[in-house]
Amino acid sequence: MQIKKAMSTSINSNTIASLVFLSAGLLSANANAEEFFTIKDGELQRPTGYREWVYVGTPVTPNDMNNGKAAFPEHHNVYIDPKSWAHWKETGEFRDGTIIMKELVSVGSKAAVSGNGYFQGEFIGLEATIKSKKHNPNEPGNWSYYSFSTPDHDALTEVAKPFPAASCNACHQSAAADDFVFTQYYPVLRAGKGTGEEAAGGFTSTLK
Amino acid sequence: MQIKKAMSTSINSNTIASLVFLSAGLLSANANAEEFFTIKDGELQRPTGYREWVYVGTPVTPNDMNNGKAAFPEHHNVYIDPKSWAHWKETGEFRDGTIIMKELVSVGSKAAVSGNGYFQGEFIGLEATIKSKKHNPNEPGNWSYYSFSTPDHDALTEVAKPFPAASCNACHQSAAADDFVFTQYYPVLRAGKGTGEEAAGGFTSTLK
What we know:
- The structure is a homodimer of 208-residue chains.
- The first copy, chain A, has 2 domains: 1-32; 35-200, CATH 3.50.70.20.
- Chain A is globular, with a radius of gyration of 22 Å.
- Chain A has helices at 2-10, 13-32, 82-91, 165-175, 187-192, and strands at residues 39-40, 43-45, 54-57, 75-80, 98-112, 115-131, 143-147, 159-160.
- In chain A, the strands form 2 sheets. In chain A, strands 3-4-5-6-7 form a 5-stranded antiparallel β-sheet. A 3-stranded antiparallel β-sheet of chain A has the order 1-2-8, with no helix packed on it.
- Chain A is an alpha+beta fold.
């Protein structure tokens, strides 16, 4: 009651305006976060929270399908940050400031009650790609590529320097379907390209 | 200015209290949504927006690894609703009201610049499982199972009746690692069981 009384004496339209502004700010704070990554002294700080971003697809290229010498002998769970996903749904383009994470997961099992196949095992690494005019003014498509995986894949580094452009971008430039991203293998991105709300799944009876 | 003046004359502490309450309500509306599904006349309405929930893992059990007759000849992208994910992170348990979605994706390609493997093609179906004492009082673990896939996998139904318990739960009861859920194949759930913030990825240098 003491507080209520104090408030009632000092209240005015500016206070209301401030509260409304504050509320709007709180509501949209996450949506308005410009970027979901931090680059400091040329190094990308290891991103956090990406398992709560939007998942787009998982390729698996196991050793036993590549003569025991797969270049990427794991499942790759791929995520895009939520603001870039919102932009993709709206426009069908990767915004400046997009970050895509690739979490590496070992082949854990090849047989289950559901049949023979490839089942996900343990986390063994983490990679990222970023589209940024500011940080990558001279890279093709403004994309840069990073890995936080240690050589023996038993830990993650705190920061990562970008790979030399050619080591990643040669494949991405020649083979990726959409702006250096392999959307042909990511059904969530492919179906969601510029489709608005429907991109999030289940809104129509057609399969898209 | 007209509006501001009108506001300043009628403002009082109750108005402020209402605005603050409204703001708090808006901020927590999503977090407080009790369930992410609707069951009407015993049928589950097709859920929407699940591609923006939390992804937990993808098994693939293709025909060519199962004598051409796989029981589930696709990739299965599996998601959990955000409130049940929050509960899982906090407690390591599936809350009453959990919904887990399984989006079926065809094998789209078996070779890419990254090597031979299994790459995701097109969406071909949608399934769900729900843990609910209210709706499934007599089912093992209170789980029920649904499919929105049409027989030829070229569309989705609007609603789904639950499968007879035995048709799904026999395998889930005997082989699933944690409360009828195959967490052994879902690294995000396994790593995130009761681990709080760390469950979302990237917070520590250890791989979990």
